[in-house]
Specification:
With 657 residues, the protein is an alpha+beta fold. It folds into three domains: 2-72, Phosphatidylinositol 3-kinase Catalytic Subunit, Chain A, domain 1 (Ubiquitin-like (UB roll), Roll), CATH 3.10.20; 77-458, no CATH class; 546-656, Glutaredoxin, CATH 3.40.30.10. It contains 20 helices and 16 strands. It has helices spanning 24-35, 57-60, 75-97, 107-113, 130-144, 151-154, 166-169, 182-206, 214-226, 296-299, 302-313, 327-338, 342-346, 412-432, 438-484, 504-534, 546-552, 570-573, 589-610, 639-646; strands at residues 2-7, 10-15, 43-45, 67-71, 233-241, 246-255, 260-266, 276-278, 283-285, 288-295, 392-396, 399-405, 558-560, 577-584, 627-634, 653-656. α4 crosses α14 and α11 (302-313) runs antiparallel to α12. The chain is globular. It comes from Bodo saltans. Residues 384-407, 478-503 are annotated as: Disordered. Residues 1-71 form the Ubiquitin-like domain. This is Ubiquitin-like domain-containing protein.
Length: 657
């Protein structure tokens, strides 16, 4: 008996014995011989209940010519994936700790927290990229859903839920998420993993600088969609960034059968394509639109993804943006092509002409406006919650439709992402617990959105606390120094007016008053810091310490002394010293110009620190004077270039590979 198996881009014919006793386990063994994919790592799709290997093929409805789909990986690929996932986890940790600016200055933060009140202000309030939005949501969710608990999931082939054990899920906790049920914990963790994988894809796409790199990046997106298991999701950033317009939206894709997908477009911006609902004080929009039963060959079409992704990837080169990167390309060209013929095959009514005013007049108006008659777009069926604190349910034409306050197009990256995230959570809960009460799910999502905003505020507060603590330390040191300094006398021959003589008591009172005023301000700042810390802020988890830097070094990275000796324990070597990290390169003109100044500054700092008195706060708990080390981190293109440039700084340590 011959069974047709689709495995990635390959079409295989698997021969098994045509006997009444042939089981699913026998079929898996034959597949393993043809593909090298172990039976334990095989996931078969195309027939229901393909899990029990003792079941007879006849009981499962598998016969001559049956078509199945295989998702799996060989043992070698699993080992490579595990190794790669560890490297990706290191990169991810660095990304969420090094956001490039204080948290409250990131456009995605403003887009999430201040969108209704901000419009047309530009950066840093607007203009967040998909990478920034995804990274921020990952960073925030990692505080609710600890990263350590998901290490096993990263290594699971195909994103299977096997790693979601109760011990792992028990780590998901938050004061604003009380009494989470196991299905809710599982849904949160799985939705977070979709966000993390989307972040990796977005970083790959955003790193492309030359046209030659585009096909490889697009191929990674197609591979992620192709490998999506039935019932799982892939999130792909989309949108358009042109000369004037900046709109980020997201495509959620899920496999519904061996040869079909559902595509959900999530766009929170005001536009003429999504249904609108006028209310007493605002106009709301329906951000989620679902396209069902899209053929696999269309979803995996390279040209479709090349054009779709290039609409926002042109932003990778700000000097080469195009006015043709517009929303009309996506809505009027790409989506009609994607859904062409689907509605006709499903017997759907044709779509109405584009009209935002008709949104509340008929059921048919909820099909996406201005698509071809063949477009099958159902924004109502099985739509999860919008993921917005402003989202409400309105009854229109006898049906329930969810609408949300629109986001400014420049702030859409974060708003649309949170909408997509809560869509995922509701979808996963509905799959694992079909009897879930709508009221319970709505309450959980509201708590989740409050928790996300609370953690956003805390993350911003932690950055502020770090700055405030440095301010306090700096001014306390100045106050100590001023107590020991006599008042400065005017220089000889100066025309400066000589102050009237004052008594020693008056002078002491003035100095004490100034010190008390400054001390009072510092006390207020300290009290504010204590209050923020008591609220749960912990700036230590966001700070990059020398120990963290040392632990982040792989086996290929070394810190060497000027004499070219490898320093095995960087943290111990630099104990009691001030450590400066200097990122530079020999090809950088400005770096070469400041090199002499930096060398001189290093020598002067070392000399000054060696003379620090024993009672200085700079010593801390150490009895010896603090030293200083400067680590030169390479930005050169080759090891030879770095070695040559490092000779410019003969006293610096070197971070090299």
């Amino acid at each position: 008996m011959k069974i047709d198996i689709k495995f990635g881009s390959k079409a295989l014919s698997i021969q098994v014995a045509d006997e009444p006793t042939t089981t699913l386990g026998d079929l898996r063994t034959a597949i393993a011989e043809a593909t090298s994919v172990p039976p334990s790592l095989q996931k078969l799709m195309g027939k229901p209940n393909l899990k029990d290997d003792t079941k007879l093929l006849s009981e499962l409805g598998i016969k001559e010519g049956t078509k199945l789909m295989l998702i799996g990986a060989t043992a070698t690929e699993v080992l490579a994936a595990n190794t790669e996932s560890q490297a990706k986890e290191e990169q991810r940790t660095k990304r969420i700790k090094n956001l490039g600016a204080n948290f409250w200055l990131l456009p995605a933060f403003s887009g999430f927290m201040a969108d209704p009140y901000v419009g047309g202000k530009g950066r840093p309030l607007e203009g967040a990229s998909a990478v920034e939005a995804l990274t921020i949501l990952d960073a925030i969710m990692s505080r609710i859903n600890p990263v350590e608990g998901n290490a096993s999931i990263l290594q699971a082939v195909g994103g299977a839920a096997a790693g979601l054990n109760p011990a792992t899920l028990a780590q998901i906790s938050h004061t604003m998420l009380p009494n989470l049920s196991m299905p809710h914990r599982r849904a949160l963790s799985k939705a977070h993993m979709v966000i993390r994988k989307a972040t990796e894809l977005a970083n790959v796409l955003a790193s492309v600088q030359e046209p030659a790199g585009v096909p490889d990046a697009v191929a990674q997106v197609i591979a992620a969609v192709r490998n999506c298991s039935e019932g799982e999701f892939v999130l792909v950033p989309s949108g358009w960034v042109g000369q004037q317009d900046h709109t980020i939206l997201y495509l959620l894709l899920t496999r519904v059968s061996v040869s079909h997908y559902s595509v959900i477009l999530v766009n929170r911006t005001a536009n003429d394509y999504h249904p609108h609902l006028p209310t007493a004080d605002k106009i709301k929009t329906q951000p989620c639109i679902r396209f069902d039963r899209i053929p696999e060959e269309r979803v995996l079409d390279e040209a479709f993804w090349l054009v779709t992704l290039s609409l926002w990837m042109r932003a990778n080169d700000p000097e080469n943006r195009s006015e043709y990167c517009r929303g009309e390309v996506l809505y009027d060209c790409l989506l009609p092509w994607l859904t062409e013929g689907v509605a006709a095959a499903a017997g759907q009514a044709s779509s109405p002409p584009r009209s935002s005013s008709a949104a509340s007049s008929s059921v048919e108006s909820y099909y996406l406006p201005n698509l071809t008659a063949a477009a099958h777009c159902d924004p109502v069926a099985s739509l999860p919650d919008l993921g917005s604190s402003e989202a409400e349910e309105e009854s229109v034409s006898g049906k329930e439709h969810r609408f949300a306050t629109t986001a400014r197009s420049e702030s859409s990256a974060m708003k649309s992402l949170v909408t997509a995230f809560t869509f995922l959570v509701r979808s996963y809960v509905a799959k694992s617990d079909p009897l879930e009460s709508p009221v319970t799910m709505t309450t959980t999502l509201k708590h989740l959105k409050m928790a996300l905003k609370y953690e956003c505020y805390l993350r911003a507060a932690e950055d502020l606390v770090t700055i405030a603590q440095r301010h306090v330390q700096h001014h306390e040191m100045i106050l100590q120094q001023n107590k020991k300094k006599p008042p400065a006398a005017p220089p000889k021959g100066s025309s400066q007016a000589v102050p009237l003589p004052t008594s020693p008591a008056t002078t002491a009172t003035a100095v004490a008053t100034a010190a008390a005023t400054s001390s009072h301000s510092l006390t207020n700042i300290k009290q504010a810091i204590d209050q923020v810390l008591a609220a749960g802020a912990d700036p230590r988890q966001n700070s990059v310490t020398l120990s963290l830097l040392a632990s982040a070094l792989t086996t290929r990275d070394f810190v060497k002394s000027p004499s070219n000796h490898i320093i095995t324990d960087v943290a111990m070597f630099a104990q009691g010293k001030f450590v400066l990290l200097y990122f530079s390169a020999g090809w950088c003109g400005p770096c070469k110009k400041i090199a002499p100044l930096l060398r001189e500054c290093y020598d002067r700092l070392a000399a000054r620190l060696s003379q620090v008195p024993s009672n200085s706060t700079l010593r801390g708990a150490s009895e010896t004077a603090p030293g200083i080390e400067c680590i030169l981190a390479s930005c050169d293109k080759s090891q030879a270039e770095f070695d040559a440039y490092a000779e410019t700084f003969p006293k610096f340590l070197r971070l090299t590979t």
